[in-house]
Structures are given as C-alpha cells and as structure tokens.
Design goal:
heterodimer, A: alpha/beta, pyruvate-formate lyase- activating enzyme, eight-stranded mixed β-sheet, 12 helices, globular, B: about 250 residues, alpha/beta, Rossmann fold, 2 domains, five-stranded mixed beta barrel, 9 helices, binds iron/sulfur cluster
C-alpha cells in the first residue's frame, strides 16, 4: 500500500510504529529526523504522489488538539475542537481541502497517542468538549493501518464529558454504543462518489455501514456535506434522497448535517493544481469572507433540495444546515 | 526536457548515446560546489517552477560503498558538511535498488554499511529542488569502489557506466513515458473578440476551463457568442450568459 514509509528517529521505538512497520514489511523504510523534512518539502506534485503515497510516522511534540474554525459545524455541541492524530488521507476526493492545505499526498500518522490523550484529558478539566478526531484525515480509512480510531473510542468511553465525533467515508465494521461517541458517515450520490470521491467506498457500502451501526445501537450522524454542483444536481440529489430515506431508518439517526462545498480561498489555487481536470474545484466560485463558495442562489438550491426532502419526511428537527 | 548532470567526462561519455534534442548532458566537474554551480548555470535566475514543470534532472555517476555493488537510485541524500537530509520522491521509478547517498568533500575511507558515498548528489539535489519538484530529481549512482580509489581510472569509470547504460536508459525512458504534458489552451482570440479587460480575461479563462472539466468545449461556448460583440459592454454581457449557462444562474 505504501511504497515508502518514513520514520522519524524519535518515533522508531513507539509501539504503534512497530505494529505499522510489521504490517507493511514490504515497504522501503527510510529514517528521517523530522516529519516536516518530507511532508513540507516545497513544490511537491500532489498528483504523482497520489499514485503511490508515502506514509510518515512521527511524534507530535507540538499542539495536538485545536479549536475548530467557525465554518465547521459544531452541531449545537458547544466548544468544538479537533485532534490532529494524523494528517492527510488515503482517499483522494477531488474537493478535499487537505490537498490545498498540505501540498502533498503523503500521510502522516502521529504515533505518540498517550500524549494526545493526556492533552485531551487536560482540556476536559476545564469542562465538556466536542472533539472531532477525524478532521484532517479519515481515521476510519486508516483503521487497517493504525489503531487511532479505537484509541479515541476507548478514551471517550471512559470520559463521558467528551463528545467524540468520528467522521468517515469508509466502511466501518465495528462501532461502539456509548452515547458520547458519534459515528458521522458522509454520504454522497453514487454519481458524485464515482466522479469526485476517488478511492472511497460506494454509496451502498456506506449505507451498509450506517445500518450496521444503527442496528448495534450506536449514535449515528449523517453528513451530506459537501454537496457538489453538477448540471443535473436537483435530479441527482433527489434520487439520492429517495435512496437514503428508503434504505436508512432515519428515525434512529441522531442528526443530519447539510452543507455545500466551501473552501478557504487560500487553498483553491493549490487544489486546482492538484485536480486540474475536476469540475468540483474548477467551478468559478464566489469569494465570501475568505472562502470560495457557490453563488448564494446555487447554494440555497443545493441545500434546499435535500433539506426539503428531510423536512417533508418529518426529520426537520434532526437537521443542521450550514448555509 | 531531460538534463543529465555528471561530474566527469568519463562518466558522461557512455551517456552521450542518450543525447538528443530532448536530452542534454552537462559535465559539472567534481565536488559539491561545481555541481551546484552547473545546476545554477543551466537554470538561471528568473525561471520559475512552472517554467520547468516538464523538466527532469538526473545526476548520474559513480560512488563508493563498503559492500554494495551495482546501480542504485538515491532515496535519501545527506549533505555531510551541513548534516541536511533530502528526499527524492520515487513514484516514477520502479525496479531499481534504493540506497542513501552521503555527499562530502572528501573520499570516505571508512564507509558505513549500506550507504553510498559521492561528492555531488546533495548540492545537485539542493540546487535543483529550488525549481524542480522532488519527483523529477533523480540521483543514480553506480558503485565503483569501497573507499580506495587508487585503481579507479577514467576508463574504469567509463566502462562501469557503460555496463549500466541499458538500465539507465530503461529508467530515463520509463520516466519520460510517465510524464503527461497538460494541454495549455490559448484564449487570446477570444479575449480580443470580447474586448476583454484583464479581469474579463480571468473570467473567460476560468469559465472555459470549467466548461472543459464538465466535458464541454469551453472555447466553442465563447466563440458562439463572439459574432454579437461590438464593445466591452457586449463582452461583459456575453460572459454573464456563458456563466449563467455553465454555473446554474
Ligand atoms: S475522505 Fe475526507 S479527508 Fe479523505 S480525501 Fe475525502 S474529503 Fe479528504
């Protein structure tokens, strides 16, 4: 899966490093002093790297838990933070802000999990916290590579003042049933998945994961975010809503978030270089408060298409809409 | 375009068979400073990364090693005097053995196991990476000695590189094949026809490129509008029509 694994000198003796290296014994392992020597090199070609990503195993000596930006939905859960337990993703969604933000397709996994949990526990001393642990990555997708998802699940299970969100597009086989652990599944129409969410599981597979989690009694969030403009979006998202409403028992879903594509203006040029043929990123966006967004008319039609369907079905109270 | 940098003429000699309009060979002279200067001369200041986006650079030559033998590609390059490490991206390369290269100003008489030693790779890589992305900078080294260089004559080096010539050619060929040159679309005639200001040019390009990404002919969409345009005002209105059609109003 990874042709090359770069290992920071100080990460070498960590248990997570050893487990990952055992799992990927065919990869070429290269010792490095600091992850930024590889991750932050100037002028990296995100496209070519995406064909054979490298993995970087590192120790995060700096800050590990960050306050989330106001464009992120806090879903009414108050103090919203995210943990940077890994950076970048093994999937390759065209519109992913990580491509624009990091300028590389390589993936960093921080292996000093105890330090993260200590920082989180310290923050929890100040009061309850809503933590998105799968923010600059898809932890579910990294499940077969490292055990970060279960580390956070175990921690949340014993810290009820923490509300943990694990957001993913991947197939999740096993979920926990604690109320404060939210499994947030991003669902998109199959057409959008095929065109713009390269390498991710199909809609059917994602719905299977949702239903498995619901059957087990886990707390499930559905994320329809980002909605992407395509020519026949109304038809596409209406058919999608039909399927979701038919195949998922929405009554048992905790909540639903809806938002259209938006990205910091800082990242759009890099994102377009990384996906030079993708209409998801080449759309002539408008700039609003430092973000590239669809024109307001398109935004409300995109959001409205799904919102209307869920309201009509009586699920309006479950909706969180990012306008 | 491919540039192959070698330290010595005797290293370059067998590689000259690869020379063409698209492949240039540059002999730098030995040592880190000469290598850096040669890269600097080849890509003078004023050039940008995007000017060199289709350029590949190789440093090919001989090196020392305690026990390794054969041809290697560097996956880590250490500049001994500064202690700086550099990392090429090797996604374009397959079936070549990899090793770390340490570059220093002197012949290492006490080499570490598993490491290659040379005198140019680090400064070549450092100078090249100012303008070229790390997936297009390659250091290929053939092991000539284990630290004792007394018997290493120019003809020994020439025959060493000759022995690896087929492998080197295979590597350069496969790298070239993997390069995809993106088509650059020119909209000058449309700008003219639309009496476009600078900001209108940006909008035309953005909309046309978006059209192509959705499978439509972006140029054609604008060309169809061109007959009715007599002024900049008409041009602006036509851009709005194309925008409404493409972007959903
Ligand atoms: S799954 Fe999420 S994190 Fe991964 S590439 Fe797609 S948008 Fe980015």
């Amino acid at each position: 899966m990874f042709g090359h694994i770069y290992v920071e000198d100080k990460a070498r003796d960590h248990a997570m490093t050893r487990r990952i290296l055992d799992r990927f014994s065919d990869s070429t392992v290269i010792g490095i002093r600091h992850f930024k020597d590889v991750f932050n090199r100037p002028g990296q070609d995100v496209l070519i790297q995406g064909k054979d990503r490298s993995l970087i195993l590192a120790v995060n000596d700096g800050k590990k838990i960050f306050e989330a930006s106001p464009v992120c939905q806090d879903m009414g859960l108050g103090d919203f933070f995210y943990a940077e337990s890994a950076m970048n993703c093994i999937f390759s969604c065209d519109y992913c802000f990580l491509k624009g933000m990091y300028g590389t397709s390589n993936v960093v996994i921080f292996v000093n999990s105890d330090d993260y949990l200590a920082e989180c526990a310290q923050r929890l001393d100040k009061g309850p916290m809503y933590l998105c642990a799968s923010f600059n990555t898809d932890l579910g997708a990294l499940n077969g590579i490292c055990e970060w998802q279960s580390i956070w699940e175990d921690f949340a299970a014993s810290h009820t003042e923490l509300t943990l969100e694990l957001r993913s597009k991947s197939v999740i086989h096993d979920t926990r049933t604690e109320d404060n652990i939210i499994y947030a599944f991003t669902l998109s129409p199959e057409k959008i998945i095929k065109e713009f969410e390269k390498g991710t599981p199909s809609l059917d597979k994602r719905i299977e994961s949702v239903n498995r989690a619901l059957a087990k009694g886990s707390s499930v969030r559905l994320c329809f975010d980002p909605l992407i403009y395509i020519k026949d979006f109304e038809l596409c998202y209406n058919e999608f809503a039909d399927k979701v409403i038919r195949d998922i028992d929405i009554i048992r879903v905790r909540d639903i978030s809806i938002g259209s594509f938006r990205i910091s203006s800082e990242y759009i040029a890099a994102l377009r270089r990384a996906c030079p043929d993708s209409s998801a990123v080449l759309y002539p966006f408008e700039k609003e408060n430092g973000f590239c967004v669809y024109p307001s008319g398109i935004r409300s039609r995109l959001i409205g298409t799904l919102e209307k369907r869920f309201v009509e079905e009586g699920f309006g109270s479950k909706l969180y809409v990012m306008r | 375009m491919i540039y192959i940098f070698t330290a010595l003429e005797c290293e370059a000699k067998p590689l000259r068979t690869l020379e063409s309009d698209d492949v240039k060979i540059i002999v730098t002279g030995t040592g880190r400073i000469n290598a850096a200067f040669a890269v600097g001369r080849t890509f003078p200041s004023g050039l940008t990364r995007s000017d060199l986006k289709d350029t590949l650079v190789f440093n090919i030559g001989c090196c020392g090693s305690r026990e390794l033998d054969g041809l290697y590609i560097a996956d880590k390059i250490t500049d001994e005097p500064s202690g700086k490490d550099m990392y090429p991206d090797l996604q374009r390369i397959c079936n070549v053995r990899e090793a770390q290269v340490i570059s220093s100003d002197r012949v290492n008489k006490d080499p570490l196991s598993g490491i290659l030693y040379d005198m140019e790779a680090s400064s070549f890589f450092q100078a090249s990476s100012k303008l070229i992305s790390p997936d297009r900078i390659f250091v290929l080294k053939a092991v000539s000695d284990n630290g004792y260089t007394e018997d290493i004559t120019p003809s020994v080096i020439t025959s060493l590189i000759s022995r690896h010539l087929a492998e080197i050619k295979e590597i350069t060929d496969s790298v070239i094949t993997g390069m995809t040159n993106r088509e650059y679309r020119d909209y000058e005639d449309i700008y003219e026809g639309f009496h476009a200001s600078e900001s209108m040019k940006v909008q035309i390009r953005e909309l046309a490129e978006y059209a192509y990404s959705t499978g439509q002919d972006g140029r054609e969409l604008f060309c169809k509008e061109m007959n009715d345009i007599a002024s900049r005002k008409d041009g602006k209105e036509a851009i709005l029509r194309v925008r409404a059609y493409l972007c959903g109003g």
